[in-house]
Design a protein that fits this description.
This protein is of the alpha/beta class and 307 residues long. It contains 13 helices and 8 strands.
Length: 307
Amino acid sequence: MDASRPHGVIAASCTPLTEDERPDAARLASHIQRLQDLGCDFVLLFGTTGEGLSFTVDERRDTLDAVVDRGVRPESLLIGTGACPLPDTVALTRHATQHGVAGCLVLPPFHFPVISDDGVFASYDRLIREVDDDRLRVFLYHFPDLTGVNISFPIIQHLVDAHGDQIAGVKDSSREWDHMQVLCRSFPNLRIFAGTERYLAPILGENGAGCISATVNVTAPLARAVYDALKRGEDVGDAQDRLTSLRMDIGQYPVITAVKCLLAEQTGDAGWKRTRPPVAEPSEEMKRKLAGVLDQLARLDRTRTDP
């Protein structure tokens, strides 16, 4: 697998906020470095976990500019560029592509009650044509629970036929293993990512690309260990079971809030608890409920660092 193309363990990064609830580029750049040090191959900014749709076009562009200015390599980033108005998606995607990022993760149009396959195709087709940059690599964001829109296999094939390598892959957040498996088998030339590390080992077994997950913000070392062991041909049953268990324990709660709570406790930085409405800030009750997860993460960290 070409290591320059997105693959492996990818954190859908949370976005730290300043006291006035604006993206904090300095702390975000530090977090990206920390995630990479913990084993992430790439980091996604401004996806669902990154509260991307809660920020303006200017906030998202300015934050990417500032993160890159602080030394983050753009080629190590994926950028969520979805927005309700198509011109905003074009502006965000063009800006990210001009920075030389590894790809743009793009939601389908979702803000009308009924979206036809033709409408979904037309939105992606228009985006690619208007960005008009051979460097653009689009990752389709299949998340029907969020959007109510199915990016069907015929849409994917139509886009590949129209735009070739510019359709680079799919993030499948459907949580349906059968769908992910058939995606991998139907589109072997695309990078197919599970939206949860719960399916990291299974999707790699189908020659998928890896996972792009919210909870990798805190599970990165274990996800890295599973990925590396699989590449060495080792059995990962126990490690994958622990990874799955952690994901499911965190997934009992609103994931963005829970992950920010865990990051605040792990790093000792209470600022991680800040969110922009409508996402709720972590409560003391959530902190208590996540105590068991924190203990598991602490044990994993000790195992990783003990000689």
